Amino acid sequence: MLYYIALPAAWLLWNIGFRIKVIGLENLRRRGSRGFIIAPTHVSAIDPVFVVIARFWGRRMMVFAKKELFEINPFVTWFIRQCGAVVVRGTRDEVDTINEAVELCRKGGGLLIYPEGTREKDGKILPPKSGVFLVAAQAGVDIVPCRVLYDTPDGRMKLFCRVKVVFGPAMPASRFAMEGRRDVKKLREGKQALVDAWEAIGAEHAFPARTGGQ
């Protein structure tokens, strides 16, 4: 219950601090009762809050998060815990957590995971890691590419900047099915397809570049 109380409060707070525009939400709502994975690029440590707020509706997702996300400030730490955030990398229970995520997606739940594994530098998309595709293959669920875009000169989050959260068309689970657990060819194809989807979102929805000090 606390999640459904915290979410509207966070939505209001974030929309006061940022002018948030959500695009492509229908790409999530078309999922119906099927499980899904949201796979955004990663620019700011606070990106997950924007994605959760942009989705807004539906049952609580599981959120794979790095330890640093729990060290921003007490409110963000409290909120992301309410949103289902779990630390994965560097924990002894990592395998159990991944298995839990697979089972959750199989049962119609959602997973938010950042395939790049770390925040981007110099505005360049990083090659995705294999984990997101292995979970998608085991769970048999679609991947929804996503980007959080900031209207700032360097593309990074600043207080009171405009923000777009864009959900792209779902990438069907069938394209991630593997012959074995480490199907290198399928993994390579999946990674390239996800990067292409991220780049397409950026090309269509990025804020205009600022020039002349504007």
Coarse structural class: alpha/beta
State the distance separating the first and last CA atoms.
44 Å
Q: Given the C-alpha coordinates, what overall shape results?
A: globular
Instruction: Give the strand content.
Output: 15-25%
- Bin the helical content: 25-40%
Describe what this molecule looks like in 3D.
By secondary structure, this protein is of the alpha/beta class. The chain contains 7 helices and 7 strands. The protein has helices at residues 2-17, 26-29, 47-55, 74-82, 94-106, 131-139, 184-205, and strands at 19-23, 36-40, 62-65, 85-87, 110-112, 142-150, 162-167. Strands 1-7-6-2-5-3-4 form a 7-stranded mixed β-sheet, with helices on both faces. Helix 5 packs across helix 6. The longest helix has 22 residues, at 184-205. It comes from Candidatus Faecalibacterium intestinavium. Residues 36-151 form the Phospholipid/glycerol acyltransferase domain.
